[in-house]
């Protein structure tokens, strides 16, 4: 592992340690996902490193390189857990520089790597104070936004509560109005039915009187006919 540099284990596309590397027909390796995204931007399936066209649309996994990367990451994790925060986990050198673009410390070898090409670096002793000042400015802006967001949230919660109270009040009023309407309709219904019954009784009484009169008339006619027949 000591004979390999971090560049040997880095993907030419993302410049990070290989993740699920595949090997192309030109023998170069690339992260599987990086190659997939890279080919989406190209008309031909070419190698991101040398530009040679790949003869395989689905390159095989580079298991040997995958194992080396896993060993490297394991060692780096162990170095980090040992408490050596000031040592570069990639090159085992002290962090003496600070990359302004990536906002992270770097060693001298990091600065010369592909990952930091055209990046601006400053000595840590010079960059950290200004970076802290920048962080404080950003922090104040975030705190201001947080307070503003909390105020808006409070107003929204009040509005939500008001909507609930208003709906409940309006519902109560609607129920009252409809109860009055129902009561009015019940009274009107009872009055209408009463009037109908009274009209029914009047008509029945009228019909009874006519029936009685007709019965008397029929009886009189019957008697007259009988008397006439007996003469």
From TrEMBL:
SMART domains from the UniProt entry: BBOX, RING
Biased composition (Basic and acidic residues): 205-216
PROSITE patterns attached to this UniProt entry: ZF_BBOX (PS50119), ZF_RING_1 (PS00518), ZF_RING_2 (PS50089)
Record's keyword annotation contains RNA-binding: no
Domain B box-type: from-to ranges: 83-124
UniProt cross-references to InterPro entries, sorted A to Z: TRIM/RBCC (IPR050143), Znf-RING_euk (IPR027370), Znf_B-box (IPR000315), Znf_RING (IPR001841), Znf_RING/FYVE/PHD (IPR013083), Znf_RING_CS (IPR017907)
Name listed for the protein in its UniProt record: RING-type domain-containing protein
């Amino acid at each position: 592992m000591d004979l390999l540099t971090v560049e040997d284990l880095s993907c030419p596309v993302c410049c990070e340690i290989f993740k699920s590397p595949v090997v192309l027909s030109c023998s170069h390796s690339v992260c599987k996902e990086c190659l997939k995204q890279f080919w989406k931007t190209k008309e031909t399936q070419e190698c991101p490193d040398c530009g040679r066209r790949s003869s395989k649309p689905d390159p095989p996994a580079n298991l040997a390189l995958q194992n080396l990367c896993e060993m490297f990451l394991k060692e780096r994790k162990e170095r980090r857990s040992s408490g050596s925060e000031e040592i570069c986990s990639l090159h085992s050198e002290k962090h003496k520089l600070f990359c302004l673009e990536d906002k992270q410390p770097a060693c001298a070898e990091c600065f010369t790597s592909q990952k930091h090409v055209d990046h601006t670096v400053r000595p840590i002793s010079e960059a950290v104070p200004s970076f802290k000042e920048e962080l404080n400015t950003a922090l104040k802006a975030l705190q201001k936004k947080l307070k503003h967001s909390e105020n808006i949230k409070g107003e929204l919660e009040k509005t939500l509560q008001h909507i609930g109270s208003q709906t409940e009040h309006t519902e109560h009023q609607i129920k009252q109005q409809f109860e009055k309407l129902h009561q009015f309709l019940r009274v009107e219904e009872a009055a209408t039915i009463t009037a109908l019954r009274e009209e029914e009784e009047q008509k029945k009484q009228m019909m009874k009187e006519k029936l009685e009169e007709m019965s008397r008339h029929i009886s009189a006619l019957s008697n007259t006919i009988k008397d006439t027949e007996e003469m």
